[in-house]
Amino acid sequence: MARYEIRGGIPLNGTVSISGAKNAAVAILPAALLVSGKCRIENVPDISDVRILLDILEGMGARIEIPEQHVVEIDCSEVHCSEPDGYLVRQMRASYYLMGALLGRFGKAHVALPGGCNFASRPIDQHIKGFLGLGADVDETEDYVALKPSEEGLRGGRISLDIASVGATVNIMLAATLLPGQTVIENAAKEPHIVDLANFLNTMGARITGAGTDTVKIRGVNALHSGTYTIIPDQIEAGTYLAAVTAVGGNVLVTNVIPKHLECITTKLQEMGAKVIPYDDAVRVMRSGKLRRTTVKTQPYPGFPTDMQAQVCVCMSLAEGVSRLTESVYETRFFGYCTELESMGANIHITGKTATVQGVEKLYGSSVCAHDLRAGAALVIAGLAASGTTSVDQIHFVERGYEDLIGKLTALGADIKRVED
Ligand code: EPU
User: Fold this and answer.
1) Rounded to two decimals, what is the model's pTM?
2) Which residue's CA is the closest to the ligand 1 atom numbered 11?
């Protein structure tokens, strides 16, 4: 098993370039199933979730070329299968986007239930509500979801989500793009990757408006055509480096970002004592003085992202005073890392949805275990900030979503290596 070994206490300095957004890539690659012809997709992150998804699509008959790093050319014209490989589907969470994409392409789908980060119960009832609203007949078991047209047939519909779910919004957009009539998603998620998926589909000929607001309208078109699209930078990868510099100290220029997407994160890091300077497509973060306490509540976009909860908790652990961190998206997300942080000396008390974090003078190197992607990233930050050596196990979780973490951190002066035991 591979692990990271980190010698902490070294400030981070230099420049780090952010990769394409994981959560946009994992929606846009299945969307290529809807396109008649070749899609050239640029700024694709080189992470294991993307590699698994490409394997799934290739196994279904997609022709995939990687002409250069971060560029994927994908032609799904020859795909005739609506049942992706169950073993691969279970390796990741976002494989559930194959449900919407295959329903949109073939009018049917048979997709195993996904795996991935299980830091909480992650139901898909809102996805199913969406498919039903589009006229699908749904057979859901413990192992798979099978979709086919109902007697009334598939057509656009008005779907009001009970929760502004990112996954359900994406799946409905994928399923509705080629359906006759208009689909309206009310209480849609507004995350940047929803907008990115809409922009990708519109570039290929779809007619989607309102992405980024709580009402998304999709007027069905007969076909999508070839095209080229560049994926947005990863908000959470960028936020992770910003939090790392805040926790560890230093001066780093984080490039290839959309600063507007980071405001919900940088506001809190500034409250804690980081200095942040935004540029057109970069953000500089500096921290040398003491960290101050703060209060954070995770919210859907444009609120503070749940995917930054664990990283900011490390900053809080090193801040003077008592910070409060409330999770409002996934209640059980604290359990993926708080015990591990406590083994490094953090003082965290969890009551329901809120963690009360009493800042400590220092964290100490320890042997810890990543239980999910963002928890793993937080433990890496803790290791970089701690005195002594930290070993982070189960790093396959981290590698699902962070491209070249070791290379990027090493270039900033960190002492971190990947060790195969
Ligand atoms: N929910 C339901 N029913 C549903 C769908 C969601 O009850 O049918 C609940 C969830 O349990 C959760 C809330 O609604 O409490 C929001 O879930 P959402 O559907 O928005 O999340 P997701 O689509 O499963 C995506 C990201 C996650 C990120 C969340 C929230 C992708 C592939 N994943 O998950 O990213 O935490 O949105 O922003 O886009 C990560 O990158 O580490 C990650 C976990």
Assistant:
1) 0.97
2) 122
